[in-house]
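Quick entry between incubations.
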Amino acid sequence: MNVLVIDTSAAPLSIALLNEHAVLAETLINSKKNHSIQAMPAIESMLQSVDLSPKDLTRIVVAKGPGSYTGVRIGVTLAKTLAWTLSIPLVAVSSLAALTGPGRYFNGFVCPVFNARRGQAYTGLYTYKNQELVQVKEDMNGLMEDWLDELIELDEKILFTGQDAAVFREQIEAKLGDQAVFASLAENMPRAAELGLIGMQMEPGHVHDVVPNYIRMAEAETKWLEQQKKADSHEG
Amino acid sequence: MTNQTLILGIETSCDETASSVVRGGTEILSNIVSSQIESHKRFGGVVPEIASRHHVEQVTIVVEEALKQAELTIEDIDAIAVTEGPGLVGALLIGVNAAKAIAFAHSKPLIGVHHIAGHIYANRLCKEMTFPLVSLVVSGGHTELVLMKEHGSYEVIGETRDDAAGEAYDKVARTLGLPYPGGPHIDRLAQEGKPVIKLPRAWLEEGSFDFSFSGLKSSVINTLHNAEQRGEQLDAKDLAASFQESVIDVLVTKTERAVSQFGAKQLLVAGGVAANKGLRDRLNETFNDRADIELVIPPLSLCTDNAAMIAAAGTISYEQGKRSDYTLNGNPGLELR
Ligand SMILES: [Zn+2]
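Done. Structure below.
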């Protein structure tokens, strides 16, 4: 098994190549450079460096979101096109799961965080049971304030991960106090290898049907639906 | 020997997800277009984020269908050609990254194509090109006169300084309360009306091949408002006919001048507005009886966005040894050169 993993859902570019026995290569580039320019050359050079050709790949795993709409689409487009054209299985995993690795040896919950601006976050709640990742609360998009109100009900420590956790750090500490723990700078990076481990265990989807998980509707659509509702209530 | 080059084309610059296989730059083996127009109609125009979402859902399906209908596998293909710009950046990215993935997976050459070069090369799928030629490109996003002295060389001799012709059509249609996209509705109304309302024509400086349609658009809106204030009801058909005549007068007059000045042997019409009946009729009247110039207007399916045109333009780049590398990116402001 040679699994190529692609995560372009946030600012860092994270790709990996692994099999059942080893992580063969992992690349992490945390720059402001455009994923559309950087991802394909990075994949090419990573494969070359371990003497594999695209035809040696047996599975693709991709971060399907949430995250930057454009970023997620670049990864999903590369992944699904590669999987389709190489006729190999494709597995789409939550981008937040790529940030859960530091929670493997943590006694409590893991809460990966992406900044969604205006006080909002993309986040979810995970935990490890016998080394296996379990989702506790669905990935969501909403106000961090509301999310913290939910978390405070939990009677366990929570490890916040992801670069963007820093954006909310004061707010989190004010609310959760000692209950909140923060991962280190190094462990806050998305790890494609972690996604790969998860994706290796999952049942592949039908390639054409794999789509990003934006969580949010497009803004134009939200507005349009609101207008429809208004129009309906006026008629009714 | 006939040219057997097989190019797979991909186009996602706006609201059509399209893929096609073209042989020898002239023969369409398949031409698949998945249109999103129904999805955008409710918004009264193309919403970039929604367009991008549709593209990522459709792209592999459309490419698969293009190969299937051509009865080929990817191994048979010589190169992948994809629209790199201009267009909506988020939409372009889908085609570009899909094309990169296919090229990489099978070690095939990758060729970035300019969308307007594609529109022009749609003509080669109907008729072999003879140089020098002038192409009139009119679409929702473009109004340009392009001079070509040989394959793969483009000189923009005139372009719009504000709205594209198609944009002006859509805006005037909206003012008249017509649904999106408005162009075909105006064209239909214009056939029934008479150009009796006085509207301006923007000729710009002497000798210029540039266009400007925003003044005309404002003039239509003002004419409507003034009539309303006087309590008069303007005939929408006459207004449509008058607007259309103004647009066509400028387009055709400037085109005629360009054709003479550059001694063009062919006039190629390109872009979605080439479907406009008023424009087609006038071009036919003006150029059909002339022995010195050949007028080519592709069928409607090749005038609107499609990937066969991208594959056709890509064929020339391929033959001229032009290649893109894996840093190819969507470029919304790409210049035609
Ligand atoms: Zn176009």
